[in-house]
Specification:
The protein has 202 residues and is α/β, with parallel strands linked by helices. The protein contains twelve helices and seven strands. A five-stranded parallel β-sheet has the order 5-4-1-6-7, with helices on both faces. The chain has a two-stranded antiparallel sheet with strand order 2-3. α11 links the parallel β6 and β7.
């Protein structure tokens, strides 16, 4: 690898585990049918929200109506953010990469409400990072190549010298097409990623 080593790292189901259904189901009145279907229909708008197509307040209003939630915006936001739990093995890997001198860059489809929450709540891990590319700030989502090129330009990355971790196959596919050293992360096979890293960094 070249002198400047970097890693683009997804957040959801990589740095933090995500469970939308358990948290958001608390917002749905118990007498309503098909809570899972209601949550799924809400998440259909997630890509637009994460691209910055509408404001936090507009999303909260729309989503509350979709779920027939009658509480306060603050209660909705608390449930919306209560979806994250730490993936501690990945935290250890990130500490190791940081100790090796890697430039760590967050690379995530996300939204302002989630970002405000997890950057503060899990500062222990996010303080390791040197930069970030968030979809709602870039105005485009993975797997659109535009957001990858945005990251390359913003941080002067050479794809062939850059690791990339993501849980979604379509995102990894774009990364590989663009020349990144990409690994599709699965929480139940962290050791496989560790072995790949050893081979890649040798």
């Amino acid at each position: 690898m070249s002198k400047k080593q970097a890693a683009l790292v997804d957040i959801g189901n990589v740095i933090l585990h995500i469970d939308f259904e358990t948290s958001l189901s608390r917002l749905i009145p118990p007498e309503l049918a098909d809570p899972a279907g209601r949550i799924a229909s809400l998440l259909e708008k997630k890509d637009e929200f994460e691209r910055g197509d509408f404001t936090d307040s507009d999303f909260v209003t729309w989503a509350s109506k979709k779920l027939q939630f009658t509480g306060t915006p603050e209660e909705f936001i608390a449930a919306w953010n209560d979806i994250f739990t730490p993936n501690l093995p990945m935290w250890d890997t990130l500490r190791d990469l940081k100790a090796r001198g890697f430039q760590l860059i967050l690379f995530s489809n996300t939204n302002q409400m989630h970002a405000d929450y997890f950057l503060a709540e899990f500062a222990e891990v996010f303080d390791l990072f040197d930069g970030r590319v968030f979809s709602h700030e870039a105005g485009c989502n993975k797997p659109d190549p535009a957001i990858y090129h945005h990251a390359f330009e913003k941080y002067q990355l050479v794809p062939g010298d850059t690791l990339y971790f993501d849980d979604l196959p379509e995102n990894i596919s774009t990364g590989l097409q663009l020349g990144l050293k990409a690994w599709r992360y699965k929480g139940d096979s962290h050791e496989a990623m560790t072995r790949w890293l050893v081979e890649t960094l040798d």
